[in-house]
Structure formats: C-alpha cells, structure tokens
Fold these 2 entries.
Entry 1:
Amino acid sequence: MIRRIKGTLDVFGEQACLWRYIESTFIETVRSFNYREVRTPIIEPVELFVRSVGEETDIVRKEMYVFEDKGGRRVALRPEGTAGIVRAYIENGMNRFGAPQKFFYIGAMFRYEKPQAGRQRQFHQLGVEVFGSPSPFADVETIHIAMKFLKNLGLDDARLHVNSIGCPKCRPSYKDALKKYYSEYLQELCEDCRIRYDRNVLRLLDCKVDSSIAEKAPRIQEFLCDECREHFVKVCKALDTLNLKYTVDPKLVRGLDYYTRTTYEIKVPYLGAQDTLIGGGRYDNLVRELGGPSTPAVGFAGGIERIALALEKKGIVVPRDILIYVATAGQDDTYAAAITVAETLRDRGFCVEIDLMERSLTSQMRYANRAKADYVVMVGEDELREGKFTLRDMKTGEQRKLTLHEMVEVLEKACKPLHGDS
Ligand code: HAM
C-alpha cells in the first residue's frame, strides 16, 4: 500500500466540513473589509525566500523543500505566503492601482519540520496583506480582522500579543545591547541559540528550550527611535479604541526576518506548544528589498490545522445544513416524481438527497437515519395518485400529507430560523 508522506494529512468527512467552515468564515470576514483574493504559485525561485524570509532563519536554513526542476532552476515549495505575494505585487506593477491594496489568500505551505499536533510539513494558511499604508491604522485593521475572524468562529478566548521590533535605524543598537547581555550566558545557551547568537541575535529571545535568560534581557521598547515608539503607541491606542485586549510582549520577535515595527501573535491557552493560531506584522522594507518601489506593508497568516484543533478542543461544531431525503418506492414514475420534488427543494436552497442505490424503502429510511436527515419526503404510488407527498419530521416522527407547494411552505417556515435569515 502506498502511504501519504510524513507530515501531510488527508482531510475528509467532518474534518473537511470543519475546514470549509473555517475558510468560508474567513472569506466572509475579509470580504466585509473589502479585501480581494490573490492566488500565487506554490513553487517559487528559492532565492525569493532566501532574500525575504532570511538566510539565517530556521525556515530557510532547515525547513525548505528545495529541488532542481528539469530546466535546472532552483525551486522551492513556498514555506509561507507573504514573499510570493510581494513578488506578485512587484512583478504585476500593482502599485499603479493606488494605495492601499488589500489582499487575502488561502493555500498550502510547506516546511520540513518535526510533525506533531498542530505542526505539519504540508500545512494550510489563510492570511491578509495590505500594501501601501505606513499608518498604524493598517496594522490595527489586520489585527481587527484576525480577532474578528476567530470570534466569528467561536474562538472568543484568543489572546493577542503585540510588540514592536523597531526599524533598521533603531534595531542595531538593540541588537548590540542583546549581544552584550547574552555574551555572559553563552555557556548556558542551547546549541541552536549559540548559532543564533552570531547570526540572528533577536531570535534568542524566543528560545523554546530555556526562557529564563530572556526574561531579564534588555527590552526593545527602551531602544525604539521616536518614530517607531510613536507608531507603537498609536497601534496600542487604536486597539484600545476597538476594545481589543492585548498583552505587550517584548520577546515577540517572530521567526521571519522581514518584519519592521509591529509584530503580533494570537494564541489560545489550550493547544500546548503549538498554541499560536495567527502571526503577523509590518514589513516596510520588503517590497524595496525585492526590487520594487518603496512600499510599506503589513499582514498576517493563520494556520488552518491549528484553528481546526482549537475548535475541536472547544467542542465547537459546524452549523449543518438542513438535510432532506427524498425516498422513492421504486417504480420509474415515482423516480421521475422524486426528481421533480428534489429539484424544487434544491432550487429553494435546501440540501436534498435521493436514492442512488435503488434500495428498498426500508433501506432508504435506514440510510436517511444514518445520514442524519432532518426530513424525509416519501414518493410512492399512493402519493402520486393523490398528488400529495408524505413529509416525515425525523426528529419528532410526525408525518403529514402535503402538496409540493404546501411542503415547500412548511419546510421554509420550519427551517428559516436555522438558516439564520428569518
Ligand atoms: P508564521 O508565524 O511562520 O508567519 O506562520 C503563521 C501561522 O501559520 C502560524 O501561527 C501557524 O498557525 C501556522 N503554521 C506555521 N507553520 C506551521 C506548520 N508547520 N504546521 C501547521 N501550521 C503552521 C508567516 O508565515 C508569515 N507569512 C505571516 C505574515 C503574513 N506576516 C505578514 N504577513
């Protein structure tokens, strides 16, 4: 038997419904803020991620799927979405459409990590990116979207953590201070952190092995330049205005190199080590660094697998469509009538199944029960003769004989509140 590749998932049944629910809730949320979809390739030149995510990051050093294609090009499976969207923004000259440009995306990403609950090698992100606005209001709009999306899903206990990691003007002096501080602890650092000390000192703050040294490290807030400090104060004020609760976390530096100023993560307290559902921040220099016109930008991405885990942990179930099963008593003319009934109901927006197995009526009823049908419409010889069909409410067992017109009325009345639009 051929098995799926380690770190990948087959998504089907209830799980697929949950994913679809997460995606459609996300799309509804971003649409209400007028974000437009962007779809970029899964394969991109390796160079794109080396130059954006950063040569010294774990993602680029250890986790990228890289190969040579038949034309000898060095290609990577995208480990995240932002870099490809920035490339697309530049390559398609999207700056000519004015500012801000607001995008959303959903898609598969690939990182060769150690698989565990909430961490896959092929995983799926949904995210937004805003181009062209240097304003803290843009940072806060993306946070607002992220929080509202989680709330719309039922995850109203998600916690927002924010920080500012400064800009190329003020960050070097902070890095120097960190180096000085950590130089006294070099022997105590984990192996990875000893490498990070030389290559990417900010990442020492977010060591998962030992956080006690980081607790006493110098804080970035004391090193921010006036512009970065003012930006961060405005972000916090706008969050207050929106009544979004947050914790300022000076250790929140994120694992990708392109960030400037605001960084943020949204976590839930019941997912163990992989508790970050959404991560994002501002990246004002990336468009220029990749060869485009100087364009400030900000965005986030969330992991569908982790959000699904959080929903399962909380016991949140996907609102289900009302299901109507149209049962037939087998003859050709009852089949034709059943199709008409089913189509009439489908055209009214109901989810309707008919028998595809040519089973007996008893077996069809058993199937309808197993499929958790809310109603069964029975179409038999008697019903055809009378021009009325039997409608059975599967919850109460109540049965009534109704014309098609009456049945539509009864079902629309009974189901409207469940569709939420009465
Ligand atoms: P990131 O923090 O690397 O940021 O990933 C964002 C989210 O993707 C994480 O919070 C997590 O939910 C999910 N995720 C990451 N790796 C895995 C994995 N191996 N398995 C399952 N889920 C995972 C970014 O990717 C940035 N591009 C976000 C961004 C957009 N910043 C600005 N714009």
Entry 2:
Amino acid sequence: MSRTLVAAAAQMGPIARSDTRKAVIERLIALLGEASSRGAELVVFPELTLTTFFPRWHMTDPAEIDAFYETEMPGPETQKLFDAAKRLKIGFYLGYAELAVADGVKHRYNTSVLVDRDGKIVGKYRKIHLPGWDTPQPDMASQHLEKYYFEPGNLGFNVFETMGTRIGMAICNDRRWPETYRVMALKGSEMILVGYNTPDDHTGNFDFDSLTQFHNQLSIQAGAYQNSNWVIATAKAGHEEGSNLIGQSMIVAPSGQIVAMAVSTADEVVVAKCDLDMAKLYRKTIFDFARHREPEQYRLIVETKGPVTD
Ligand code: CDT
C-alpha cells in the first residue's frame, strides 16, 4: 500500500508594516483551519510569515529592528498557532525572523521551524543563501538588505524523520541553488518545504525580472525532479508596501510536475495528496544516486567555494 501525506501550501497575501502579530496569527489560524477541513496533515507557510518583508527598508534604530524578530518559538503570540495546530492534528512549517543570543552575543537569522502533528518542534533551519546586500544600493529602485539583517544559517541542510516521511527545509533564495535539494536528497529526504518572498523587480534588470515567475517554476520543478522529492513551496504574495510579490505557491511531484498551484496573490490554500513512494520510484530508476552518481569526478567542484571566473 502506498504511503501518502496530504500537504498544503498556505499562501499569504500582503502583510502591511502596521499589521499586528495578533492579526497575522489570526490569518494563519484561519488558513490552518481551511487546510485541515480539506484533509491536510501538513501546512507550509511562507518565509518571514509573521511580519511584512522588512529587508526592503534600511533601518538603523535597534529597537525598531528588533521588533521584527522573535526571541522564542513558540512565544506568547505564536503559541496560539501551535495550540490550534495541535488541536487540528496538523503539522506545519513556519518562517520567521529569529533573534538568538549565544554567549551573550546577538545573532539574527532568517529561520523556519517544522512542527509535528502533536505541536512539537521537530526541526529548525536557518537560511543559508542570503540574497541582496549588506548596505543600501544607491542605484537600485528597490532595496533587498537580507545580508544586513541576517547572518548566513549555521545549521546546514538537515532532514527530519516525521509524519511518516523524511522532510527537509529551505527558505526562498535557497530554492534557486541545486546544492540545497541535493544535500537533503543525499540525506534521504522525500519532501522539501520552502517559503518565499519574491518581488517581481528583484534584480533591477528587466530582462531577468520579466522572467521571475518562469524562474520560480523552473527552480522548484528542476529541484524536485533532479532530486526525486516532493516540493511544497509557499509564497507571501501581492502588493506589499510598494513591492509586488509573486504568488505561484505550488506543490510539485518528484516527476517535476506541478500538481497544484495558487491562482491568486492573496491568502489561498492549495492542497495535494502526495504519494511518498513516488520519491522512491525515481530514486530507484533515473536518479539512483548510489548507482549513477560519480562523486569522485565531482570532487573539484565540491571543494571549490569561490566562483570560477574564466
Ligand atoms: N527572500 C528572497 O530570498 N528573495 C529572493 C529575491 C531577492 S534577490 C535580491 C529570491 O530568490 O526569491
């Protein structure tokens, strides 16, 4: 008998800077309820789900900056989301800005957690591929300052055994990098969860920017197929504080086929029943890593950190 998991991408429409955590969490709980009523066992929320996408602004006041971060998860406000999910017996992925203190030093990460159907955190991931800049760019109409607001994640790409499968996590820009999927697939993942915030003018070059939606699909579908994984990818979408964020939240099979996709840029749930054995099928055939990969021949590439420039 095949193993299945009903998964949902819970896309969110825009979050204004003035929206309270309480209001956002009410929206998340409503999305959770809808996903549950449609049979979902696992819900994927976007990157930085609890606030507007603040790296578009250059802030310097530490108190103003700190207000966008969570110092505990769950905290007093997010506990309500954990309680609702536990009541509904539904697992979830949640992206948020994390402020951690280690040895008295503050560290800021773009983070996601994976929560099981009993409301317990079973995995944590800190975004590794941080796009954008660490200082404002005078020539760019839209700023993207993730390197100013976050350190690169220090937890690696891990795979968590839960909900009858093996799940990995990534965040936004990670989905464009083949290493993201391959590292987790080599660790046995069957499903990869990704939240994102992608403005439609993110490079400032119209030739690239006009392909933003195509590149979103291309990256996710290729990552799914080449690594024999289900990918559940969820956007924060719509017109947010002057920025147009793409939607296209989607559930992609290990075949690379899109099995469900959002049709709006608002709060919207898409659901699909994922046959987990489909991941095994591709891994036993075209992507049988043990039989067909040639790691010795990849050695030079793997050891090269810097770019090849010529
Ligand atoms: N949030 C995030 O990583 N967004 C990037 C676009 C911005 S690049 C300056 C992405 O890859 O979708």
